[in-house]
Amino acid sequence: MSFEPNILTFCCNWCSYAGADLAGVSRFQYPANIRIIRVMCSGRVEPAFILEALNDGADGVLITGCHIGDCHYIDGNKNAEIRINNTKKALAKLGFDKRLRLEWVSASEGARFAEVVKDFTEEIKKLGPNPVKEVKINE
Amino acid sequence: MQKGEMYVGWSTKEDVRKRGGSGGLVTSMLAAALEKKLVDAVVVLKKINEFEAVPIITSDVNEVLNSAGSLHSVPSNFAKLIADRNLKVALPAKGCDVRAIIEQGKRNAINLDNTFIVGLNCGGSMHPVVTREMLEVMYKIKPEDVHGEEIEKGKLIFETKDGKEHAITIDELEEKGYGRRESCRYCTIKVPNNSDIACGNWGVTGDLVGKATFVEINSEKGAKLLQNAVDAGYVQVQKPDEKGIAIRAKIKGVMEDLGKKWKGKVFVPMDNRLEYFRKELEHCIDCGACKTVCPTCSCGDVSKCTEYHFRGDAYKMSMYHLVRFLHLADACIGCGQCSDVCPVDIPLTRLYRMFANPVQEQLKYEPGMDLRKPPYFEVKLNE
Predict the structure, then answer these.
(1) pLDDT tens, residue by residue, B176-224
(2) pTM of the full structure
(3) DSSP characters for B160-202?
(4) Which residues of chain A neighbour B274 with C-beta distances below 8 Å?
(5) Which domains does chain B have, with CATH numbers?
């Protein structure tokens, strides 16, 4: 059986979640590997969430938010960008940086949401399973 | 006296000169600041024996004068001691202490305007437990017999109670895994120019060797502190000669190059990093000691990292440390205290620096060197 990754996706309530909704309503096809968690803003996603997801065996973490300038909370997504970029730099030490991605998807971009998910799933499939999963406990 | 000026000075008190290292200038300066009400309190190390001392906050001038005498094997960091106390305080500080105090100042735990930082040149400190073991294994002397210790020309010299001197080169000791703490070896802050006034014995020449301290004033506060000590009659100063200044700069350069060399030696690129981190963190017992001593950490008792103090969260890799790795990536100053206190001997400072080095290099940010806010806070609103 081919490798099917588990990708945790954080969607912001105001743009990306509506975008994902639109993708469903418009029947755009995208891989069923993602599990969506709705947050009020992409700025709410802390590095600890990402770490916990990766440590518990998620193969990838996708964070989506409103485009810069469109944030419901004015600058939440700017904070998110700084936060995620710094997290990425630090995660590079563990070799996890490619498993984390930040994308902007607006409420009207259902097609784009499907495209982003497709693209990220392809990339994770190429990377292979999360190495943490292979750790044997009580060896 | 002004910012940028350099002096050579010594204490006027016979007793302090005899007990203290390099003329006892720092001790006298602190005592004078307390005496003339420049500060309300002073932080000093209270000696227990040759290897151990506890930091205390005191307002007693005699206690300050009694504390004279330098110790190489007490790696305690004072920043957390004075944080959140709102004291008008003067304190001696190594390079890493200064950085920690400035970091706490950025986090509003210390009022830097009320804090007089007397920086001390530091070539590295030693862990008390390691030093005791080293004395038995390398020097073949009993730790209880040690009377004094000194570093001279790259040699670590211990003097025993019967008057004999035992010397071994530091390079040789470090090859065997003793000597300075690992974080001190790759530290590149040897002269603390970020403090108010930088003191040390490098650059003292001629008859004064061992009897005077070389002082560089780095700020207005530092000038005030030294001027006060001179006015109070605690300290005598004179201008240094050209040769001394050159020697000081040379020693500084050599030490910093050595630090950079060690950095290359300690942080070798590795292939299976995830496995390495997992193996090192495997034995963590979530005691939280590394967070308690961390001088830049200022979240308080209940914080993001302590929420993961459960073995369930760490069944594959310690979440507590992963959160702290990220949190300290832009704040770690590499003081080495986390490695010192770890009860299961995880080389934590090395692990923390592995995250902090690339982040701080990429962001061109050195914590504790100036008042620049951490990059995480440099978010501009309404741009």
Answers:
(1) 888 888 888 998 888 888 899 998 888 888 778 778 888 999 999 889 8
(2) 0.85
(3) ETTS-EEEEEHHHHHHTT-SS-HHHHT----S-TTSSEEEEST
(4) 94-96, 131-132
(5) 6-123+186-260 (no CATH), 128-179 (3.10.450), 273-377 (no CATH)
